[in-house]
Amino acid sequence: MTANLKINDYPRWNYYQESAQLVFSGGELPDLVADVEFVGTLSTSSNTWMWSWANFSLLEEVRSRIEAVRGFGEEHDYPHLTVPKWAADMQDGWHMTAIAADTLGALGAYRVPTDNGFIFMVILSAKHRYPA
User: Fold this and answer.
1) Which of 72, 97, 120, 131: CA 20 to 30 A from 89?
2) pLDDT single digits (tens) 93-128
């Protein structure tokens, strides 16, 4: 579904925790504003995954819905969904994000780089913002 949004056609992106939005901009298309939920972070320095529901350095606005994924893990006895931090690689990050996307009914997923890894997020809704 994110292919329809043409997110790869935008040269820039920025995320804003306060509004829980990811904004794609630049190029020929109008800005695309996506409502997001942070799923978790993958540290490439410690090779660990941390769920956003356990990461209190993130604002509540970007981690308020992810608790549903933890609940799904508890219901189905899936430890990787209920343990806050564990040894992981990139494939694990995408796997956890796919589960979150399905559980939350997301349109798709996105990954942004950080100084020591990546933040994985799901796109819950998106709309174009046209210049005034």
Assistant:
1) 72
2) 999 999 999 999 999 999 999 999 999 999 999 999
